[in-house]
Structures
1.
Amino acid sequence: MDAAEMNKPTPPLLQTHSIVKRYPGVLALDHVDFQLNDGEVHCLVGENGAGKTTLMHILSGAIAPDDGKILINGNEVHITSPRTAQGLRIGIIHQDQKLVPELTVAENIFLGNEPGLNPWPFIKTAEMHRMSRQWIAQIGENIAIDLPVRLLSTAQRQIVEIAKALSQQARIFILDEPTAPLTARETQTLFSLLKKLRSEGVGIIYISHRLEEIFEIGDRVTVLRDGKVVSTADIRDVGRPELIRWMVGRPLQEEFPVRRATLRKEVLRLEHVWSGNLKDISLTVHQGEILGLAGLVGAGRTELAGAIFGARRRDRGTMVFNKNEFNPRSPREAIDAGMGLLPEDRNRFGLIPEMNIRENISLANLQALASGFFLSPRKEHEAAVEYSQRLSIKPTDVSAPVQTLSGGNRQKVILARWLFTGSRLFLFDEPTAGIDVGAKHEIYEIMNQLAQDGCGILMISSELPELLGMCDRIMVMCEGAIAGVLSKEEATQEKILALATPPAKEASDAA
């Protein structure tokens, strides 16, 4: 090899040149150039609709570009299907989990890549189980690999997605909002794994709306806005305000809008409530208050919201709502009494994707739209338009299918539904998961306005900065019980994590 060949620069692991993707009336990607190097975590950020997921779908073979080139190690490739991407050692973890609910954990991890097939006609089940345990253990978790995925929590499903990508031994690893359902501890475990992969030369494309993660894990960052690349920079050369300005096209003066809390009458009180794994829960929520609920996955936060909302049976204890003892036997009774729940998984439990915006808004209050024995289309349309405009839902056409909306607008549709029913207590479970920084700010402003209007809010979140920035008090749960309550003035991330972490078992207990 001559000197010229030796000094020739090594081509990037992955390059895209002038990638274009058009949809009817929309230019989703406008001549996008992107580069990923060996052993690099390259973060890709932007608001919903900026084109991030479209670019990842092209790289994973889910859709084809209309124009442009993709190169791997300097060689042009044509990624025509997910199978082609897998053959090029591209692994992806989608924001919307792509698991088969009825199959087991092991079957999902090796779906389409089962050991023993080709040419052996039978799957080597024992080997598949052994390797599945290996990949789950590498992530630092312990999930029964023979369980059907439908029985797993949202966070556990995400761990299975990560194990599936690891099993493919990807050289290019794409993660689209991987930590949305994970706790702080699980996120740190994932980051340790990504750092290990990076040290082994794996190139990682990391998409997240959680900006603190970008600065913790990233080497470089590329910002997309309206399908175009706004900027690419080394993480160490860009600050948080500048990154936000690149994303939204304007500076946000306050990431968490300021609100002066004016606590009024008590709207909800729980006294010594037990339900399933919940133990002796007592709390109060006042009108005009945002009460935060922190804790690790499995601490009981979502279960508590379900017990309040009538989705879980209470074994004993008292709940008082609007000064009256209240024991809802179903969510319908809670809704009729003035409660609204925004669930953790808005797509599965908060919306009916096949319905449009208008139908999803009116769903819980059809009796208000009756004209005689029949539903009044005019009343339904007028109500949907009123609340859609009030919350600035986009698109403005209330006949648009809700499944075409961004995460922030889907959340607004659920909020519009509860406003239409007249809710005075809102249970927000991970309200900004998978939502971009601009839409988060809108959701925060809506929450502040609800509190100012005298509503009570119980806010469950795994994002500690969000709890610290939005809540008047923070209640921390650990293993189904309340570990402590912190005022806004005394709350810190360290104090919250200390309360949320189970105490170490004594040596005699472990023996």
2.
Amino acid sequence: MSLLTFLQQPDVRDRFNQTFQKPKLTQTPPLLAPPLTKSYALVGRAFDYLLRFQIKAFNPHAIERGWVAQNALHFLQTNSMMRLYEQAYLFVTEAKEHYADFLKTQQVTDTLIVSALRLAKLEAIYRSKKIDPNLDQILDEDIADLKALLAIVKPQLFTSPEPILLNPTFDLASLVVGGADADLVFGDALIDIKTVKEFSLERRDFNQLIGYYVLVKLAGIDNAPPGHEIKRLGIYFSRYAYLFVFNVLDVIDPQTFPSFLDWFKRRCDPSGLLDP
């Protein structure tokens, strides 16, 4: 299971829908980077990596953790898929080298984009536990799609002296829901990256953001500085180069939220791992 799977449980979904009112998008920005491929999920994951690479380049103080894609190496090795393991190990090694070069030059190359696509494939293997026998096959249109997405990134949206955490996790709270890692913490905002064609705030995406916030309240954020608080939640619509952010207090009632938090904890942690 994972946080997303947990949130799809009927009783959990219904409780979220009844408790939290989804905010409205007040603007309709133009679609700046229409899809150039049908590899929607793959391109979306690869862009997550590339945007975080860029954010680290913009903000050297940003705190990183190990790539989720690297977890696929353990999965492949323990399941005795040694040919794929060796191929994946090579791809991860190359990706580290290309990423290090990018941080020095801040020049996005085709080799960096190819590495991001391979990391995305490995992450999909880890999350789904389904094997992709074509790790080395990269489509030109996927590369072109990612180039178009990167070309519209506005550095000013992602540059700040405030704390920045890339792909953060939530200590034991990530464990009790079967796995949870957000895309980005930027100052007091927790931001998810969505590479989708339609500009709309879907209920499942809003629930996901609230789910992350609940995990923060239950166990905090790994590597966050002392006293750090999440006060805003948001989504970066990458095909629109648009960052939508809203205040937590606009969607959460401080009077009723503690009882919701108690329910969530009982529902996801019946064994009491999160108990003090």
3.
Amino acid sequence: MRKVLVFLFSFLIGVCLFLWIIEWVGWGEIKKNLFTFSGWEGMVILGITLTIWLMEIWVFKFIFKSQGYNLSARGLGEILFASLSITYLFPTTYLGGETFKVYAIRKKFSLPWKKNLAAAIVEKLLGGSVVLVFLIIGAISFILVSTLPLKNFGIITATFIGGLVLILAVFYFKSFKKESIFKWFFKFFGIRNWENHLLKDTEEEIFHFFDFRKKTMWYGLGLLFLKHFLIFIRCWVLIFFLKGEVNILIPLSITFFFQVAYLFPFPARIGSSEAAQAFGFSSLGLGAATGITFSFILRGAEILFSLLGFIFALKLGTRFLLGDVGDREKIQ
């Protein structure tokens, strides 16, 4: 019940923010921009969005393969689409999408918990490393091309990015020295008696992947970089469709705001995306209405695939509840 109330509360806040932004900008200008967007342009955005989602399958398939498990792309894809939809539509659930993903992969493929948990953590660490690069580049690009004085923006952004850099720096330093991160973390917060075989085994799997001397880690970073580069390309293409802009600093700046919108736990990023893009686009001289149109179009593409993923989530959830893992996927 508590989770439902939190979800409803976050949704209500998002809707109120959404309506306020729409009223502030004016629906007429937004509608005008939407009507200039053609069907074939929409298909291009859908195609890029699908490719981004399929990259998630490729990344996880590679991580599991590095552990010695060649999982079925189809079976893994259903679970990952379901997980992405849960995370996107219900972000206030406590790690809802991640919990579903770990449990479903374990159930479907009968993998050891340590392998499964390690794969999920490895993907987040790789993704966080790549996102950090795009955040830094995007923030610098925005400061260079923005038409507004951005002293406060620079301070807040530098603090936020600095925190992420510190977290990842600690991980990579500990990983390089093969020192227990869990032990350091619990000791830092004064927690004793944390010893757990699952945590130790999971950490060993993570350290095994993050070996600077092996190609595995660098290949994984390359895959995540390709995924987020496609997100940048999608922003660039959509801005070109809406405004005809080709300056590379603009889509880099807008990609920054696209990532920032995910920090707010609003279902389907409603409200947070409009606010972020309205500020970003208006600061770049492209018009707040264009930013909201940009947000509408991307959300439309993401919701379409989220609904497909939600169907997979219902299908898999029902089979698991009935105790039927079906024709359990075999590890090739």
4.
Amino acid sequence: MLVIGISEYDKLASLSFCKNDGDKMYELLKSLDYEITDNNKLTGTVKWAEMREAIIKFFTQNVKI
């Protein structure tokens, strides 16, 4: 699983509900026994490069052929 909830932007107003939504979704998925590593929970202030790397790793490491 990959959870992303970005709330802080360089040139836009903060969206605090996005961090809250991401945190709540993380808690819900964990309570349902979904496996989410620390690297796959990105909430609050997230740098573009960090998010890009997490997305690429998530999809390339979780592909089953």
